[in-house]
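Quick start: what a row looks like.
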Amino acid sequence: MPIYTNTMDAIKAFFNESFDFLQLSLQLRSIQFWDILDILIMWLLIYNLLKLIHGTRAMQMAMGIVALFVIQVAADFLRMTVLSKVVSSLFTIIPIAIIVLFENEIRKVLASLGRGPFVGLTQSSSDPDLDQIFFAVRYLAERNIGALIVFERTEGLKNYIEIGTVLDSVPSSELLLNIFYSKSNLHDGAVIISQDRIASASSVLPLSNRVDLPRHFGTRHRAAVGISEETDCVVVVVSEESGRITFVKNGEAFVPEDYSIAQLKNLFHELTQHVEEDDKSRTTLWRKTLFRRERRKLIASKELTSSEEIETVSEEPEPQKTASGSGP
């Protein structure tokens, strides 16, 4: 093994040896079609994986693993024995750490691969009775009664159905009103609608750990965001404090312009069906995200408060002057 006088010579030698090895590898056999296909498949897998974890904590963890790998290579190259052994010992537990840390991302990838060729087999044949469901939702919203309804799509929710109270009932407004009645034993939890039937009530859903959610989001809203991040379901939430109706899909919240049954059904169909590009510009005119609407309300309230302060100041009586010209 040659002894290098400085670091630059060692780096140059490393690149020269790598280039020679690459040249030797290319001379062994010619590049074929399957080699190009292999590279394209790997590129697609890596691209979709990065797209899946982009903007999440998993991306930071992945960058940490890459940093450990770079440190390992550098330590081996510079003959740092202690550092190399410490980092190599960490790599023995990295496969288990990846499974634990990337549990949600792995579940999403496997679910998307599993449902891809069989979407038509797993999707329900028709929608449930939306008139009955949204009549109950509007009734609960008018009376500030909290509710949480999950509509199962292509990804099954059997695990969450079994946790709650299994019903397997036909959807009706009377049943939903009785479930979410404040003194009912089933009101504290979610109703899951699967295969056009009310599968369960009082089901426990995973809460979202996102820190960018509005402060007024309570347990119901965080549960709706959490389950929508893990599956492709659509969730309807009725706020117990304000009576606001919120639709949640893929971790994003939507509110309708009004609470008519037709408007609620339109928003539900838009979120559950694949909308063409030409239709998106037309259907999204009346749709607003919850965060944008809340921002406008906050600005309007500030303007109203400032105008009231101006009116109060203008209506204050001027102090009467005394004979000497000074105030009282």
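That is the whole record. The chain has two domains: 31-115, 122-292. Residues 290-315 form the longest helix (26 residues).
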